[in-house]
Amino acid sequence: MTGKKNIAFLGTGSDVGKSIVAAAYCRSLRDKGIKVAPFKAQNMSNNSGITPEGLEIGRAQIVQAEAAGIAPHVDMNPILLKPTSEKGSQVVLNGLVHDNQSAMDYHKTKDFYFQKACEAFDRLKSRYECIILEGAGSCAEVNLMKSDIVNFRMAEYAKADVILVADIHRGGVFAQILGTLACLPEKYRDMIKGFIINRFRGDPELFKDGIKWIEQKTNKKVFGIMPWYSHFRIDAEDSVEIENTIPISKLNKKKPALGIIKLPHISNFTDIHSLSAIKELQTAFVDTPADLSVFKALIIPGTKNTRSDMEWLIKSKIADKIKEYANSGGHILGICGGFQILGKDIKDPQGHEGRPGAIKGLSLLNVSTKIISPKITTITLFSWGKAKGQGYEIHMGNTKIISGSPLFEIHKRNNQNIGKPDNLDGCKSKNNKIMGTYIHGLFDSKQILLKWIRQIGINEMDLKNISTNSDKENNYKLLKEHFEKNITLK
Question: Which residues are tagged catalytic?
């Protein structure tokens, strides 16, 4: 393998670390002076972001583009599936909403989407020396292989060498690797040049016999073992990571804690990363009707199905607990769908989230939301008083303030100056304790983060580990060093 050879990192399963490995290799090649770009034909995730041209792609490819030192572009992730139910997804094609389809209908049109993916890859390849592809889930799903457009079929089109990533932390790494090979047709097995063993805990010397066994059984190379890391932080693609937060019962009463409502269709959970990275704070997800008085503030995050999640809040009795918390003087922030939930009602006359209809919200803000097209996708410059920030918007809702005050002032969307009356966002209650906004990523701006921290009654002087953009760059540097120390692609 040469530095300018296209590489496809495919996985033995979901959440084995393909995204992070791809990001690490993007940074490694960039630092070698190679013009490199990431690519994932099809992403299924409600954790998305906005490119500079105002188009929507998966968060993982934004991270990989940042690692490669380039601006994210829609060609890096031409197809994004955003699940709205167990069997249906909103299909985002080339950054724009294309359709809402059931899984069955989508599979019937895979050839169309594969062609679109190939066109995006060709455009990307014309601008860069090397493309690093990422697969999706397991690359050996036998029942889906004929219609799989993101793993081997895409790697074959890209003439990419395939490296299989396996996760030793979840156990059964030998079966992961050999089982994957056994499920593949011969031409796909031949495309795999070797393996990366990811998330290893302990002394790698103890796994030398394991490496020898894998290489003898497969006649393929193990390129290295990626040890578990905790000395840097990279945004994750999947919401799997939210399972690893502190349970409410184990919160340290001496440290301030923030509660995040774990909505069934939670999206853009990376909004809380800058908060959870602060060691002096605790973050805990709430999915049962627990006592919320332990929290300095609650965050109701984004959701891909606002009405469905509002219904879940009511049925689970969590809605009652949120109202009790608000009535006792608690601070609540709703982001995007969470903002809509805080309002009086959510109307969906065209059925963008399912059947047409409406549902009452929490009525903690006197606003009303209508889910309508077109979808808003912008990179947004805004201010909160003297505090300035940059975030992004992804929503189909139009929320009107009945009474109350706007929260933020918008200055630019997608580099276009915004004038009155469109320069206002969100809403806040009279006592400033209930707030809602459509802006994702607001806490990535340090001035906004610190102002909100002060707003909820936490002394910023007690906080030491507050992330900044320079911290993000340092994290990519540490990721690259961790990768190069342990992995040799030859």
Answer: 336, 440
